[in-house]
Design a protein that fits this description.
By secondary structure, the protein is α+β, with helices and mostly antiparallel strands. The chain has six helices and 13 strands. 16% of the residues lie in helices and 19% in strands. The two termini are 23 Å apart. Keywords: Signal.
Length: 378
C-alpha cells in the first residue's frame, strides 16, 4: 500500500467529480479537517451560515463533497448545546443542491462535541487577580464553544458508550510536563491551579462508530478525536508547548495501557482502550515530527507506538505537509489508524491552486487528511 498526496492523483479530463460514486462498502473513508469556522463572538458563525450562501462554507463543502468521507472530524467549528452551527453546515452546505459539479452528501449521525475553549474556569489561571475570558478559560477561547470539534458520520455513533475526558486533570497524567521557568525553576502555575487545571484544551473523546453488517461489519471503530493547543503564544516556561505534548501523549497512554487506572473519564470510568480494538486517532494535533515549534517527542512517540500505523502520504519531491502557515508547510493534521486495521489508501487534499478544487483551499490554512480502510466482520 502506497499513500499519495491528492495533488498527484491523475483524473481523466472526461471525468468530473460528480461522476465519483458514493463510497463503496468495500472501503470506508475516515478523514479529519480543520475548517476554521470560528468568529469573534458567540452566534456569529451560526448567523453567517444561515441561508446557505457563505463563501467560506461553500468552499469547505466542495472539498468535503468531492472527497466524500464516511466518517469526518471537523476541527474549529462552533459548539452550541443545540448544535446550530454544525447542523447548518451539514444541512445547508454539505447536503444541499448546488450548481457546482459535486453531489450532496448526507451525514445523518452528528455530534457537536462540548469543549473547554471559552469555558470560564473557577480559578484564576493567569494569577492576575481576576477571572475573565479568554485567559481564564479552561481552554483559550473568547466565547464558550469557540474552536470546538464535531463528528459527522454515515454510520451510527454509539453515544451511550462514548468516553469524554473534558475534565481530566493535567496533573494526574504520569510524568506530566508541569510548565516551569527555566531560569528560576519556579512553576508557572501555583499548586492550587496546577491541581485543578484540565489537560485538554478542547476535549479528548473516544467516539464509537458502529459499522453495520451491510458495510462489512458489524464491528466498532473507536474514533479518537482531539485538537491540542498550539505550542506557541506563551513564554520561556513553554506552558502551551508542554500542554500540547501531553495532550498528544494522552492518546499513546490510552491505546497502549488498557488497564491504566490514571485514565479516568468524565463518568468516573478508568482505563484505556481494550486490546484488539479498531481505532483511528484524528485531529489537528498542532505538532510536526520534523519541524515547527512543538515539543516533537510527543508526536514522534505516538507515531512510533506499536499499536499504530504511521501513514504519511508523500510525494516524490517532498515530505507530506497538511497545513500552510504563512510560507511554511507543516504536518500537523492526522488520521492515524490502529495497526490491526486493514489500510487500503491514504492522502492529503492539496490540489494545484489553478484547479477548481484548488481555488477552494483559501477557506482554511489546513488541508483534509484521509485514510481508506477495508471493513471486515469482527
Amino acid at each position: 500500500m502506497r499513500c499519495v498526496a491528492f495533488a498527484l492523483l491523475m483524473i481523466s479530463p472526461a471525468m468530473t467529480f460528480a461522476d465519483s460514486p458514493e463510497p463503496s462498502v468495500k472501503t470506508i473513508r475516515i478523514a479529519s479537517m480543520n475548517v476554521s469556522l470560528y468568529g469573534d463572538s458567540a452566534g456569529q458563525v451560526a448567523a453567517k451560515l444561515g441561508g446557505g450562501a457563505d463563501a467560506q462554507a461553500i468552499k469547505l463543502s466542495r472539498i468535503i463533497r468531492t472527497i466524500r468521507p464516511d466518517v469526518l472530524l471537523l476541527c474549529e467549528i462552533d459548539h452550541e448545546p443545540d448544535a446550530t452551527t454544525v447542523n447548518r453546515f451539514a444541512d445547508l452546505y454539505l447536503n444541499a443542491d448546488r450548481s457546482d459539479v459535486t453531489e450532496p452528501i448526507d451525514y445523518p449521525y452528528r455530534w457537536s462535541i462540548p469543549t473547554n475553549t471559552g469555558l470560564l474556569a473557577d480559578v484564576d489561571l493567569d494569577d492576575d487577580g481576576r477571572t475573565v475570558l479568554p485567559t481564564d478559560a479552561w481552554g483559550f477561547g473568547r466565547y464558550p464553544g469557540q474552536y470546538a470539534m464535531a463528528v459527522l458520520s454515515r454510520f451510527p455513533i454509539d453515544r451511550d458508550n462514548a468516553r469524554t475526558f473534558q475534565k481530566y486533570r493535567w496533573s494526574i497524567l504520569p510524568d506530566a510536563l508541569r510548565p516551569t521557568d527555566p531560569e528560576t525553576g519556579t512553576s508557572f502555575y501555583s499548586d492550587a491551579v496546577w491541581q485543578r487545571l484540565r489537560l485538554s484544551s478542547k476535549n479528548h473523546v473516544d467516539v464509537p462508530i458502529v459499522i453495520p453488517e451491510s458495510a462489512g461489519g458489524p464491528r466498532t471503530l473507536h474514533f479518537l478525536v482531539s485538537h491540542p493547543t498550539p505550542p506557541v503564544f506563551d513564554g520561556p516556561e513553554d506552558r502551551n508547548g508542554c500542554r500540547n505534548h501531553d495532550e498528544i501523549r494522552f492518546w499513546r497512554e490510552y491505546v497502549c495501557t488498557p488497564n491504566a487506572e490514571f485514565l479516568v473519564d468524565d463518568n468516573g470510568i478508568s482505563g484505556g482502550l481494550g486490546d484488539d480494538q479498531w481505532f483511528a486517532i484524528a485531529g489537528d494535533l498542532n505538532s510536526d515530527p520534523l519541524a515547527g515549534d512543538s515539543r516533537q517527542a510527543g508526536i514522534k512517540e505516538l507515531l512510533a507506538c506499536p499499536q499504530v500505523q504511521n501513514v504519511a502520504p508523500k510525494s516524490e519531491a517532498h515530505s507530506v505537509a497538511t497545513a500552510l502557515f504563512g510560507s511554511r508547510r507543516v504536518r500537523v493534521d492526522y488520521v492515524i489508524p490502529s495497526v490491526n486495521m486493514p489500510l487500503v489508501d491514504c492522502g492529503v487534499v492539496w490540489p494545484e491552486p489553478s484547479t477548481s478544487l484548488g481555488r477552494c483551499l483559501d477557506a482554511t490554512d489546513h488541508r483534509m487528511v484521509w485514510i481508506d480502510i477495508k471493513p471486515t466482520p469482527q
